[in-house]
Amino acid sequence: MTLNQYLTVQALTKYIKRKFDADPYLVNIYVKGEISNFKQHSSGHMYFTLKDDKARILAVMFSSSNKVLKYKPENGMNVLIKGQITVYEGSGQYQIYVKEMQPDGIGELYLAYEQLKEKLEKEGLFAPERKRKIPVYPKAIGVITSPTGAAVRDIISTIKRRYPIGKIILHPALVQGENAAKSIVDALEKMNQMKDVDVLIVGRGGGSIEELWAFNEEIVARAISESNIPIISAVGHETDFTIADFVADLRAPTPTGAAELAVPHIEELMEKLLNRKSRLIRSFADIIRHERKRLEFVTNSYVLRNPNRLYEQKMEQIDGLTERLSREMKQAVEQRFTKFEHLEQRLQRNQPLLQLQHSKEKYGRLKKDMYKQLSLILKEKQQEFAKALTAMQALSPLKVMERGYSLAYSENQEIIKSVNQTKSGDKIQVVLSDGNLFCSIEDVRKD
Three-state DSSP class for 86? Predict the structure, then answer.
């Protein structure tokens, strides 16, 4: 076999790939299995492994195919797949290119509904504390729905019957089909730009889950949550629940119910107004009667019948107060004058020159007493010193030496008290009363 008969790995892989691509049974193949190792690339392509209990195969779903999915695939999910089997030349592995995919055992739309509901609930979009109150007496009611359906007729007729003074602003929108979600979002944005809309009704009549699906789209849910105007959702029948119902500030079971929740009943308002009018009239009548009684009492009072008496009494009071003021002013001046004299006397007693003179005299007395005390102490110490000196002289060894005694010291300046402390040849010092003798011992004799 020559060298030219050997194939390269690339050539072999291409040959096998062409075999796979040419097989009509592998072009459109239906496979079911469980998703594992799922990963969605930033490009939007999905890569995962499809497996059962005995085998597995690599799978790729490009973004052009997976963008129509209503749900997000997850690990462990059982799916039904339509695709094509081919070979990836880079690794030489065969894999399935997925064209269509749907959940096995559960509807695709229902799965997408549950996934989005769980996601938004975790973000807090359904929380009761973020829901706003619907205004009790709205001036303008915005309605976003199809302009031709039965829902819009029910809403308008209910509002006009219950609350004819309310202004209805209708913004038509698609509520079914591929572009319905974007149409609803655009209508919400335009309604929020209006300044006079107090409450919004967003909804449509009943239908299948596919027909109601626009109200399960994430963009619609987020637009409702970001609205500055309180929103009442009215989608389908009483048993139909959409994502919009959970995000809205208030859910109505039907479009007619939404209109009833949005506005009060005019007859109930009229009854309330009449009741309040009656209460107001009774209250004013009571106030008027009370004030009339007060007026009669004041009119018949002694003051108004004899005003001069009131003036005379006030003049007497003024005279009395004037006398009291004069008396108290005089008393206050006398008290201030007495206090001033007292302070002047204290000032005279505490003049700085007098204080200085007193201090000098005190200093002279203290100085004289100090010298006297020092003289006494000095005399006493001199006497004590003379006594100590006499006693010291009496005990001094010099006095004894004057009578012929002397002291002998060894070379170490120790007093020699016994002949045992010396020996022949030692140098000693003999201290007399009038000097010292330095001697050498020739002989030592004991008594």
Answer: strand
Can you list the domains of the chain with their CATH numbers?
9-106 (2.40.50.140), 129-264 (3.40.50.10550), 401-440 (no CATH)
* Pairing state between β 140-145 and 199-204: parallel
User: What six digits make up the tokens of 345?
Assistant: 């006397």
State the CB neighbour count (10 A cutoff) for residue 77.
20
The amino acid that residue 158 corresponds to is T
Positive or negative, the CA dihedral 151, 152, 155, 158 is negative
Tens-place pLDDT, residues 319-339? 888 889 988 999 999 999 889
Beta-strand (E) ranges in 53-105? 56-61, 78-88, 93-103
Q: Is the pLDDT of residue 230 over 90?
A: yes
Instruction: Single out the residue of 199, 216, 196 nearest to residue 207, CA to CA.
Output: 216
Distance CA 50, CA 78 (A): 9
Q: How far apart are CA 349 and CA 92, in angstroms?
A: 124
Nearest Cα to Cα of residue 264 among 136, 132, 133: 136
For residues 169 and 141, the answer to whether their CB atoms sit within 8 Å is: yes
Structure tokens at 90: 């880079």
The two tokens of residue 92 are: 């030489």
The DSSP bridge pattern shows strands 167-172 and 140-145 to be parallel
Task: State pLDDT tens for residues 232-279.
Answer: 998 877 777 888 999 999 999 889 999 999 998 888 888 888 889 889
Report which DSSP code applies to 415.
Answer: B
Residue 190 clears pLDDT 90, i.e. is over it:
yes
Report yes or no: 159 and 141 within 8 Å, Cβ to Cβ. yes
Q: How far is CA 301 from CA 315, 316, 319, in A?
A: 20, 21, 26
Place of tokens 């004799």: 445
Looking at the predicted structure, is the pLDDT value of residue 1 above 60?
no
**Residues 185/221, Cβ–Cβ less than 8 Å:** no
Beta bridge partners of 61: 46
What phi and psi, each to the nearest 5 degrees, are found at residue 248? -60, 160
Placement of tokens 């299948």 in the chain: 208
The pair of three-digit structure tokens given for residue 299, joined into one six-digit string: 């009119």
Distance (Å, whole) CA 307 – CA 79:
105
Q: How far is Cα 170 from Cα 148, in angstroms, rounded to an integer?
A: 12
Residues 445, 138: Cα–Cα separation, whole Å: 148
Give Cα 186 distance to the centre of its chain.
37
| pTM exceeding 0.85 | no
Q: Which tokens is 291 given?
A: 């004030």
- Measure the CA–CA gap between 46 and 59, rounded to whole angstroms: 8
Q: What is the dihedral of CA 18, 19, 21, 22, to 10 degrees?
A: 110
